Amino acid sequence: MSPLDLLVVAPLVFMVLSLLAGGWQRSLLALAIATMAALSVWLMTLDPGTAHVVGGWELPLGVLLRADGLAQMLVPAVTLTAGLTGLYALHQFAPESHASNAQTAAFWPLYYLMWSAANAAFLTTDLFNLYVTLEMASIAAVAMAAMGSVRAALRYLLIALLGSIFYLLGVALILSRYGTVDVTLLAGMAEADFATALALALMTGGLLVKAALFPLHGWLPPAHAAAPAPASALLSGLVVKIGFVITVRLWFEGLAAAATPAGLHVLGGIGALAILFGSLQAIRQESLKALVAYSTVAQIGYLFLAFPLIAGAGHAWAGLSFHAVAHMIAKAAMFLAAGLMLKAAAGPRIADLAGLARAMPLTVTAFGLAAVSLMGLPPSGGFSAKFLLVDAALRQGQAIHAAVMLIGGLLAAVYLFRPLAVAFSGSETPVVPPKAPSMVAAPLALALAALLLGFAGGPLADLATGGAPATVAPEPLPALEDTVETASEDEQ
Amino acid sequence: MSLVFDLVLCLMILGTAAASLLMRSALGGIVFFIAFGNLLGIAWLSLGAVNVALAEIAIGAGVTGILLILAHARLSAMGDPVECEPTSPWMRAAVAVICGGLIVLLSVAVLSISPTDRMGAQIATLMPALGIENPVTGVLLAFRAYDTLLETFVLLGALVAVWAIAPPGGWPQRPASLAIATPVSLTVIGTFSRVLLPASLVMAAYLVWTGSDLPGGAFQGGTVLAGGILVAALGGAIALPRADDMRLRSVLVLGPAMFLGIGLGGIALGRFLSYPVGLEKALIVAIEYALALSIGATLALLVAGKPVPPAAVQEGGD
Q1: Which residues cross the membrane (chain B) (predicted)?
Q2: C-alpha to C-alpha distance for B57 and B135, rounded to whole angstroms
Q3: Tell me, what DSSP letter sits at residue A227?
C-alpha cells in the first residue's frame, strides 16, 4: 500500500459516490476530508524521493509516482485548501438543492475531479500522464468557470485546449526521440539537440497558457472573477499551479540539458513583467474579484521570476516551492473572504464594501491576513518565500530581479490596502445577512495557515530541498533565522 | 501500400481539409470535415495503426460529425444565419505564417530524430502473461491502465460539465429531443434505427471481445454504441433519459467505478491496479465491457447536450 496512488484514487471514489448519492454530500465531504488528511500526513512521513510504478509495470513503459519535496509540500497544501473550500462550498452549493439546481449537482463531482487532478499532477513524473491530469483539471476548471460566465468559460476552454495540443505535440516529439516520457529517465539521457529544444519550447508554451503567465494570462481574470467564490479559490489556488509544476519538472529535471541559461532568463524576464503588469492592472480594477484575479496574474510572475535564480547561490528552489504553497493557501482564503464580503455588500465594486469591517470583522480579518501573506510581510508564508527569493537574487548579483520583487510587494500593498481601507471606512455598520459559522471559519483558517506558514519556514524549506532535482544548487540549507542574520550582515 | 495510393490519399486529405476550411457554407464545411476524418482513418490504416483508424473514424468523423450537424441545426433553429464571417487578410496571413512556421519546425525536428523504440521489446515480453494478443489493449488496460483510468474520469467529468450549464428550469430534465422534425425522414430513420440499435449493441460487444486479441476495444465499442443510441434518438425510437435518472447514473459510473474497484482490489495483492496472476484477461475484459457501456452512454449524452426545460424538449434540431 502506498499513499501515492491513494491520494489520486480516493477523490475519484468520492466523485463516483457524489454522482450516485447527491443528497449525501455533507457526509461524503466529511469522509473525504478525513481520508485525504490522513493520506497527506502519511505522504509527509515518507522519505523524500520515495517512488513506485503504478501496478508494478516497470519503466520506461509504466507510470512512476514519486513523493519529492515539492509534492510533499503541495499535496498537503491541496488537502488544506480543497478541504476548507469544500466546507465553504457546502453553503454555496447546499446539497439539499442538488435535485433542483444544476450547478449544485455538477459542482461536487467536479470538485473531487479537480482534487484528484491536482494530486495526480504533483505526484507523477510521467509527461503523458501529466497531460491526462491537465485535461482532468481543465475540464473541471472550465465547468466551474462556466457557473459564473459561460462566455469566459468558453474562451478559457478554447485557449486551454490550444495549450494542451502544444504540450501534447512536445510529448510526442520526446517519446519518439528518447523512447520514454518519464522525467526521471529523461534527466539522464536528454541532450540539447533541435528536437529536444523544440519539444521543450512547445510544451512550455502550452503550459504557460495553463499557468496564465503574462502575456498568456488573458483568459484568467474574466474566468476567475466571474466564477462562484469556492470555484475561484480552487481555480486560482490549485489549477494554475499544475501548469507551473510541470514546467518546473521539465526545466529543472527531465529536459534540464536543453534548458539554456538564456531560456531561463527569458522566463524570468516574463515573470518580472507579469509581476509589474498584474499588479498595475490590479490597482486599476474597480471590482473586488477582478482585483483578486489580477493579483493571481502578478503572483504567478514570482514563480517564474525565480527560474534563473534556481541554479545559483541562495535558496531560490525553497523560495519557489514555498511561494507556490503560500500563494495557494492565501489566494484561496482571499477569494472565499471576498465572496462573503460581496454577498453582504451592495454591489461588486470595491466602493460597495464601505463599513463591512464592522459588520463582518472575522471575514475582513481573513482578507487582511491573506493580504499580509500576498504582500510578503513577516511573519507570513509569503514573506518567507519572497525573502528566500530576494536573498538568492542579491547573492547572485541580480539586483533587477530583487528590485522587481520588492516593487511587486509594494504594488501588492497598494492594491490590497484599497479594499481594506474602504471596508474600514465610514461610521455606519451595514446590516448583513447572518452567515453559517463554517463559512466564516474556512477563509479565516486558510488565512491563518498562510500566516503561520512563515513560522514553519525552516522545516518547510528543508522539506522542499529534500529530493530536489540535481540541477538545484546542492548547497546545504541553514536555518531561516541564520539566513536572516547573514543577510543583514551582508548589508552592513 | 503503393506510393501512388499514398500520394492520392495525401492529396485527398489536403483537399478535403482545404475545402472544409474555405467553404463559405458551414454545412458544406462540416460535410468535408467528415470526409476528411474518414480519409485520415484510411491513412492510419495504411500506416498499420488499425486501432487508431477505428477511433479516428468513429470519433473524429462519426460522433464529431453528428455533433457539428446538430450544432448547425440548433443554431439555424435559433434564426441566426450560420455563415462564416470573412476573416481579415492580415489575420489569415498571420495564421498562415504561424502554422507554416510550426510545420517547418516540426518537420525539421521529426526528420532529425531516428526513432528509438525502447518500449516495444518490453511490451513483447510482458504480453504473454496477460493472456491477450492485442498490444494496444495491453498498454491501455494493463501497462498504462493508470492513464486510461484517469481518462475515463475526464470523459465522465465532461458530461458533468455539460450538466453544469443547464438553463434555469432545465435541471434535472432531459436533453432537447434529437428527433427529426420532417415526418417522412423521422419514419425512415426511426425504422432504420430499430434495426441499427440492436445491431450496434452486438457490434459493440464484438469489438470489445475481439479487442483482446485484434484491433478493437472499449473505446471503439463504446463509440459504436453511442452512434446506435444517437441514430435511435434521431429517429424518435428512444427518448433520452433525465439527468437524475438513477439507472442512467449507474450506467455512467459503471465503467469508471469497476475500473477503480478492480484497481483497489489490486492493493490486496500488493499494488493498486495490479491484476492477480491468471485472472488478468478476465478482469481486463470485465473492465472493458463495463467501460464500453459507460462510454457509449456518456458520448451519446455529450452529443445530445445539456438538459433543457420540458417545454423546450420538443424544439430539437432537424
Answers
A1: 29-47, 54-73, 93-111, 123-143, 149-166, 178-197, 217-239, 251-270, 282-304
A2: 20
A3: S
Q: All 3 cell numbers of residue B270?
A: 500488493
B86 vs A: CB within 8 A: no
> For chain B, what are the domain ranges?
122-318
Asked whether the ipTM of the predicted complex exceeds the cut of 0.85, the reply is yes
The CA radius of gyration of chain B, in Å to the nearest whole number, is 22
Is residue A63 classed as helix, strand or coil in its secondary structure?
Answer: coil
pLDDT in tens, A206-258: 999 999 999 999 999 999 999 999 999 999 999 999 999 999 999 999 999 99
Q: How far is CA B195 from the centre of its chain?
A: 22
Cell digits of residue A186? 529523461
Cα–Cα distance between A291 and A272 in angstroms, integer?
Answer: 19
Q: Please tell me what DSSP assigns to residue A56.
A: G
Contact A5 B144 (CB under 8 A): no
DSSP letter, residue A306: T
Whole-angstrom distance, CA of residue A353 vs CA of residue A466: 44
B113: nearest CB among A62, A102, A195: A195
Distance (Å) from the C-alpha of residue B199 to the closest C-alpha of chain A? 30
Cell of B152: 475515463
CB A73 within 8 A of CB A241: no
What is the maximal distance between C-alpha atoms in chain B? 63
Does the CB of B279 have a partner CB in chain A at under 8 Å?
no
pTM: 0.94
As a whole number of angstroms, the distance between CA A209 and CA A132 comes to 16
B197 within 8 A of B226, measured Cβ to Cβ: no
Task: Report which secondary-structure segment, H or E, holds A64.
Answer: strand A64-67
What letter would DSSP give residue A475?
P
Model confidence over A74-93: pLDDT tens digits? 999 999 999 999 999 999 89
Task: Label each residue of chain B as H, E or C.
Answer: CCHHHHHHHHHHHHHHHHHHHHCCEHHHHHHHHHHHHHHHHHHHHHCCCHHHHHHHHHHHHHHHHHHHHHHHHHHHHCCCCCECCCCCHHHHHHHHHHHHHHHHHHHHHHHHCCCCCCHHHHHHHHHHHHCCCCHHHHHHHHHCHHHHHHHHHHHHHHHHHHHHCCCCCCCCCCECCCCCCCHHHHHHHHHHHHHHHHHHHHHHHHHHHHCCCCCCCHHHHHHHHHHHHHHHHHCCCCCCCCCCCHHHHHHHHHHHHHHHHHHHHHHHHCCCCCCCCCCHHHHHHHHHHHHHHHHHHHHHHHHHCCECCHHHCCCCCC
Question: For residues A143 and B164, what is the distance between their CA atoms, to the nearest angstrom?
Answer: 6
CA neighbor of B33 nearest in space, from B49, B16, B50: B16
Write down the domain spans for chain A: 123-491
Q: Which residues does chain A have within 8 Å of residue B270's beta carbon, measured at their own beta carbons?
A: 56
- Give CA angle at A50 (A45, A56), nearest 5°: 125
pLDDT score of A94 more than 90: no
Q: Which residues in B lie closer than 8 A to residue A3 (C-beta atoms)? A: none
Phi, psi (deg, nearest 5) at residue A52: -155, 160
Instruction: Look at residues A8, A15, A134, A6 and name the one whose alpha carbon lies nearest to residue A86.
Output: A15
Using only C-alpha atoms, what is the Rg of chain A?
21
